[in-house]
Each structure stands twice: as structure tokens, then as C-alpha cells.
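Practice set, problem 2.
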Amino acid sequence: MAGFGAPDLEVVDAAGLTLGVVATRWHGELTDQMLDRALAAAKACGVDHVTVARVAGAVELPVVAQALAQRYDAAVALGVVIRGDTAQGSRTPRRTRAGRRRSPRWTPLAPCARSAAPDGQAAVGLTA
């Protein structure tokens, strides 16, 4: 990172809005932290109605996120893919993106499927 050009972060007034959050159970030590931060951010913005759904892995995220986006004002999808010695680390993000592309353009969905190396990079990113 360059160290400059960071956006001014302001708390958004989201009082009265509803939010659906879906998070994977896979890599729970990371997605639990992501979920905690998402719920804290929603609370700070005044969102008083948050529904949380948990799914097995990143491939299921788009399906559940689309369903949540149809029932709530906005939806957030949280997942982690760790790159490793198998092709799964590259196939899973592709499948997740493909599922997201199949959702209607108007779907208010904020995806956060983090891809990281197996050396602890994801955990470092969460503590920053």
C-alpha cells in the first residue's frame, strides 16, 4: 500500500434497513472474525434487524446471498479460500464469482470472499 489516498471513513446512517449476512463455516477461525466485524459495523450504522445464515463453504455463498438479497434491503457474503497444493484454491473463487454473476444486476450484495496464501496472510489481513 502506498500509505496515502485512503478514503475518509464515515459511519453511514442505515437505521431502519434490514440486512442478511451469510458466512461460511469453512475456515471458521477467520470467517467468525469477519462476521463479528460485519455485525459490529451494521450495529454502528444503526441496522437493528440482521439475519445471519451459515453455509458449508464458498461455493454455497452466492445461492444463499441471492436469497437473502431478495428478502432484505442488503446482503453480505463472507468467505475465505486458502490457496494450497490443490486446484481447489483456484476453482472455488471462479465458481463463487460465476454464481454471483448469475444474480440479477439489481441485487444489493456485498461479496467478501477472501483468497489467501496458506502462510497466515488471511489472519494478518483480519487483524489490520
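Problem 2, part (b): a different protein.
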Amino acid sequence: MALDNSKIVFLSYSRKDNKLAEEIDALCSRLSIPIQRDIRDIKYKQSIRQFMKQTADENTKVIAIISPNYLKSVNCMYEAYQCSENWSFQNKMIPIITSDIDIHRVSIKKEYITYWEQRYKTILYYEEQQFGSYKNEIEDTQIALDTLGKFIDYLRDSVQFTYEKIDYFKLLSALEYEFKYPSVLTDECWNWLMSDSGIKCLDIIEFIGDLYRSRNIEISQFPNIPTNERRYFFKNIECYVTELGLTIVLKLVERNDDKEIVMQYSDISDIEESDYRSEIHSKYYFYSINRDKKRIYDRVQKKLKLFNQAEPSDKEQEVLYEGYNDVYRLIVHY
């Protein structure tokens, strides 16, 4: 999976929604999506307004966290305006809607237009009372008023994501990521991938992509002993989530007699790519939970905690050291 290096992904959000922005930022980081964000990427002495104008750039995609705070923010509405000024919202913006806003409510457009109209009247009053120059504020509020109606129309009509349920495959596709494989990961699998920050989700995505461009693959028949590995032609992969992890079903073809075989690896807690990748091969390790080992491991942990035992016995130490994962190796040849 790869993103065009010329592409920039800009995160548009209200500072009042900073916690949500942090979570979206972290999610994108796990998927290796390079995010441009104000608190991190504004250069020394660069104006905020100049930074926000990046949203108008041809190569920029905008992930926008749409909330009541967003629709009442001068800066957010300016960023929305930049998206629509030279390009359409559809070509630029990927909206993520928070749960505290119903974008399809009939009165929502009137509610926010009324808010900006009242703000506009207040600023004009300050100007008339000669409290200072409000030229910039007047221009910004006018931009918000001019943009708001068509922006809400776009949000109602767009393919959008809710913060509570993000379709990760569609999100990556909207960012114009190039997938090397068909859509084999179900929503349940994507949710599992993103549920634990310890899971190397990008390695798993790359692994599936590498399978689909392989010449042949070499895989462990037995765990923890990378010997007697045999080579097969890869045909297909299926993934589904179990109670303890991910189950992968590989459909392979014998190289000698074209016989089709199926190999299943259950309860995978992670897939990790080796650092030794070359033009002709890549190497991956499956960490598969051994349920018998896990029961013994959990029993030892529970005993130590229950009796507040400071020092485990030699046998218990061995159980804790070995853990409960079986490791399989798979080498992809190109």
C-alpha cells in the first residue's frame, strides 16, 4: 500500500475538539498517513492563515472533524471555504461527523446561519462604535455566511464517516492510497486491526499486498521451528476475527502437481515484518496464541497476584518467559 509522495493530508478541526483530533492523528499515524496539523507543522513566523491556505492546494486532501464547534469556528469555515473556492468539496474533503451533531436535521442550516448572522451584526456594531478596525473579522464572517449553506448541503449528500464507526478501507481509498490487493479485510477485521495500538497493522496490510504480487511463498509447517519449509504458489487469502485474534486461511497450490491445499493459522495476535526486505523477497512472522499455553500462563499470573508472591518458582519463571505465542515464518518470493 502506498500514497503518492506529492499528496498532503491536512487535518481540519476546532481546537475545542482537540481530544478527537489527537485520536484521529494517532490513527492516521498507525496507518502511515502523513498528517499536516497546525499545532505541529506551522513554521516559525508563518501565519496561521497562510498555513490554512494549504487546503486549496491541488495535492491536498482534507480530513475534517465536523462538530458543532467546527461549524461555529472562523478558522474551520475558512478552511472549508478554501476547499470549495478552487475545487469541489467532493474532490478535497473527507468528513468525519461527531455524534453530537445531526447534519440531516431540517433546522440545522437555519440554526448556524442565524449564529453567523448574529455574529456579523455584533462585529458591525463594534465597528460603528469605533472600538477599532474589524475589517478582518467582517471578511471572515462574510466568508462563513457565504460558505455555510452549500457546505451543509455537501455534508448531507456526501459519503461520510462517523467518528464512532470509520470504514478504514474506504478512508484509505478516499485518500487515494494504492492497494496492492483486493478488499479481503472485512469491517470486523479492520476494527480488530485498529483496536490495539500494539498491533502492527501496516505490516499486516503490507503482508497481504505482498502475497498478491508473489511468485511463490515459503511457509512454516510447524511453529517455532523454521525448518522443512515448503514453497507454494499463492492463490487466495481469507481473514476473520476470533475470540483471541485473527484467523488467516491461505489457499495455496503445490508447485509440482498443481494440487490445491488450505493452511489455517488461528488466533493470530500480530504479524510482524522482518527488517530484511529485498527486491526478491520479504519475510513475515505470525504470532499465534497457543490456547493451552495461555491457560497455563494466565493461571501462573493469577496465582502470583492472588498470593502476592514476589518471586515465582523456576518453573513459573520459565512459563512467564516463554509466553504463550507460537511463531510461524512466511517468506514471500517475488
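Answer key, part (b): Residues 8-169 form a domain with the Rossmann fold fold (CATH 3.40.50.10140). The two ends are 16 Å apart (CA to CA).
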